[in-house]
Amino acid sequence: MQHQGGWIQKLLRSSSGHGGTLLGLVMAVGLLSLPALAFGADATPAAPVEYRDVPYVGSRNIIWVVAQLHLLLAGFVLGVPIFAWLCEVVAWKTGEKRYDKLAKEFTKLLTSAYATTALFGGILLFLLISFYPKLMNYLTDIFFPSFIVYCILFLVETATLYLYWYGWDAMQDGGKKTFHIFLGFLLNFFAFFIMVVPNSWATFQSSPVVLAEGSDMARAWAATWNPTWWPVNIHRLIANVVLGGYICGAYAGIRYLSATNTEERDHYDWMGYVGNFIGVFGLLALPFAGYWLMREIYQYNQQMGITLMGGFLSWLFILQAMLIGVLFLGSNYYFWLGITYRIPGSEIKYRKPMLAMLIALLLCLGVWMTPHSLVASMEEARKMGGSHHPLLGVFGVMSAKMTVANLMILVTFMSFIMYWRAGKQETAGWAKVAKAIMGAILASAAIAVIILGVWGYFVPAIIRINYFSTSQVLVVLGVMLTITPLTALLLRSAKTTTEMVWGKMPPRAGYSLVLNAVMVVLLMTLMGYARSSSRVHWHVYGVVRDTSPYAFSPALGYAAALMSLNTFFFCMLVAFIFWVATMGDKAKAPGGASKVELPQGMPAMAGASSALDEPKAH
Amino acid sequence: MGPLIKLIILNVIAYVICKFVVPNVPGSAPLPASLVFLYLMLTTSGFLIFATLSAESKEAFWGPIQRFLTGENIGGLQAVRYGVLILFPLLVGWQTYNNTAVSDAPPSENRTIHPAPPGEYTGLSSPVAKTPDNIQQGKGFYAAFCSPCHGGNFDGKGPAARGFNPPPANFSDPTTIAMLQESYLFWRIKKGGVGLPIEGMPWKSAMPRWEVELPDEWIWKIIMGEYDGAHQSPRTWE
Questions:
Q1: Residue A165 falls inside a structural domain
Q2: Could B29 and A383 be called an inter-chain contact, meaning their C-beta atoms sit closer than 8 Å?
Q3: Distance from B70 to chain A by nearest Cα, in Å?
Q4: Which of A277, A479, A603, B123 is 20 to 30 A from A437, alpha carbon to alpha carbon?
Q5: Are A302 and B183 an interchain contact pair (Cβ–Cβ within 8 Å)?
Q6: In this complex, do A391 and B179 lie within 8 Å of one another by their Cβ atoms?
Q7: How many Å separate Cα A457 from the centre of its chain?
Q8: Which A positions 419-458 lie with beta carbon below 8 A of chain B?
């Protein structure tokens, strides 16, 4: 079996030089040749078959790709309804029709995206039953009642989705609109439970509990309520909002880059802003949920916690720091470009604060990305006295990581507040006092986070985890909960000095939106692998051992190549879904004679809209 | 001063800090090249972000580079341009060759520093009561069996420490035993270097397998003595 892994590895290596075409072709052939697995089955009928395999490609690789794609698509179809429903509610409450249009545009994607997700779910199920019959038997025996619940949820979710989408135009006025909003709520309600039920199966595999004898329902419920179930539920819920927001941003970015008239350009610029805002909104809360999940894993099993955070999987968390760092930088960069290009005249006023925030972000990122045990040559390690740097080694542990993560969240939040306030002049008599209070809150919060972080080195771990880290999170949340309403109050009476101008962003703003979406998908593939790999050679941790030839952890480089491949496949699938969903609109669209054609006449992809990026004449 | 010059100066400053300032801070050591590279990349990324925030700053940074590379109105610099266009790919090729050529230098040490304990050791709690007598006794055992390597001050600087690479753990460092549960230490002391799991092999640990010489009770007492002597507390969940 080893030669299969080696074969894939060679293929992955060679593909880097051939643009991945060969690899895509081979993977496609591999998937199409699935029926061949019947021939790969063990021919001896004496014992029940425990595993089946596919020659050359390997059953684990196929499951890896299909499961990851299903999960990413599921994140997408669960994130988009939250995003769409929130937009619809905003449109309903404020009367701003463009939010309703945005919500409808994204709900349209849902039907095809939903079908694709279900398709991958079906493929995954068939493959799991085929490749891992013993494990699936075991899980079915425990979770049979929740399989039924899942099917019922799927039925009601599908019916609600059809009503929500096909009833959109028919339910626009009065009570019908209220009912439509309620349908949107139901859609998200069922979607949440569609996520929660399979989470129980996956989390049970990682953190199983002792199952007492009892009815089927009692056993299923006991297995469902395992230690990592709710942390994963919350983490995935927030991550889905982030994914939905950034995918929306990427879609808007691509449409913005290829826009050929000002109306399109204005619309997609605004859509990019909304997508980035929702993505950032979720991103600010995501590290807290991730920390809670890791805490529960560590508390559940020390071995698993160490494997993840200090053992052979700990390098994944350095990669994670890099990806999250790029995401924070990309999101802030987009905010700052927005201040510069959408609010003329603001650039000079905010250039210095932007520089200060950028430096703060980079310093925090430098700390976050510094590993505890470093990559060093023999000579370098000898000079350091081991693989830990005696001075910078302190950056490698959780106290430092939590501190800088909280500071980066604070900086990003302030970026948003700055964007919100740009182009407006406060007229309230108490504006100066309010601004001083906000400044004081922010400064004291940053100082408190740093003090708690440093103090964390000198107290027992449990004090740091239970009190200091929690306090850091509460301090940051406190800043958000005080500064947001204060700013809203302040801006209620503010005078708009410069109107926001849409459609003036440079091409790199569109590219940064696409980059953010790719980073989120890469992060999900990375941490999906981490969660799954932390079980090491167990299907169900400590209970059902993996006795297949694949009961080994792949090298990190090999895993990273498959993560990249999954990200690429997912991006292609999403592009396909968008293309299919918008095909009808393009056909229906009038010639566009009434729209103002851009002077360049060509989209940014062709390089023409870089004219937007020319410096103003002084 | 042009932005490109600023970028170069900024990187030189960052390099000087990493290479000459940080290593000379008392108690510090030279930074490995991988870390220096990481910090220089961050510096460059930050500069590029700031330089492209507005059309004017982007033009100031990128405009001269673009004009130089395309040869647009650069007058007498044409020869330099050709030089750069020829030398740059050669430099990249040389760097690639250097990184991939067979070398007699030993490979980097990508050692996994924290092995995960076997399942049977996770969740174990000390059967020995935490009394002053037991702690004192544990410190005595520590002095006899552990301090030659881990040091009388629990700082990893025992008389035999210099003979080991990697050096013995420094227990007074808050990033070592303070991060671990007592059961983890029990496993490491009992099984030693030879009992380490196969994940992330090859392991480099000269820790003796103390189970052949010490009873479990003594090991638990040593653990208590270690934490107390190093002024650290074990990770707990209560």
A1: no
A2: yes
A3: 16
A4: A277
A5: yes
A6: no
A7: 31
A8: 457-458
A416 lies in some domain? yes
| Among A388, A398, A412, the residue to mutate for chain B (most B Cβ within 10 A) | A388
Kindly report which listed range (A405-409, A512-516, A543-547, A577-581) carries the lowest average pLDDT score. Answer: A577-581
Is B52 within a domain?
Answer: yes
Rounded mean pLDDT, A594-612: 51
**In chain A, which residues have their Cβ closer than 8 Å to the Cβ of B22?**
391-392
Together in a domain, B88 and B182: no
Enter the pTM of the model: 0.85
A300, A301, A302, A454, best to mutate vs chain B, most B CBs in 10 Å: A302
Instruction: Determine, yes or no, domain membership for B187.
Output: yes
Record: contact A306-B234, CB cut-off 8 A: no
- B166 and B204 co-located in one domain: yes
Distance between CA atoms of A491 and A57, rounded to whole angstroms? 59
Co-location of B72 and B125 in the same domain: no
User: For residues B46 and B50, what is the distance between their CA atoms, to the nearest angstrom?
Assistant: 6
Mean pLDDT, chain A, rounded, equals: 86
Domain boundary residue among B68, B100, B132?
B100
Structural domain contains residue A405: yes
For residue A10, name the pLDDT band (cuts at 50, 70, 90): low
- Taking 70 as the threshold, does the pLDDT of residue A38 lie above it? no
For chain B, say whether A356 makes contact (Cβ under 8 Å): no
Helix (H) or strand (E) segment spanning residue A80 = helix A59-94
Helix-then-strand count for chain A, H and E: 20, 4
Residue B34 is nearest to which of A362, A374, A615, comparing CB atoms?
A374
- Asked whether the predicted pLDDT for residue A444 surpasses 90, the reply is yes
Minimum Cα–Cα distance from A330: chain B residue: B49
Q: Are residues B175 and B221 in the same domain?
A: yes
- Pairs from A265-272 (Cβ < 8 Å, separation ≥ 24): A265/A502, A265/A503, A265/A598, A266/A502, A266/A503, A267/A98, A267/A502, A269/A342, A269/A502, A269/A503, A269/A504, A269/A505, A269/A509, A270/A98, A270/A502, A271/A102, A272/A334, A272/A505, A272/A509, A272/A510, A272/A513
Cβ contacts of B184 on chain A, cutoff 8 Å: 302, 306
Provide the token pair at A80.
Answer: 């988009």
How many CB atoms within 10 Å of residue A93?
Answer: 10
Q: Search chain B and give the residue with CA nearest A389.
A: B29
Domain region containing B152: 119-229
Q: Same domain for B219 and B128?
A: yes
Q: How many domains does chain A have?
A: 1
In which band, very low, low, confident or very high, does the pLDDT at B96 lie, cut at 50, 70 and 90?
very high
Q: Tens digits of per-residue pLDDT, B195-217?
A: 888 766 677 788 999 999 999 99
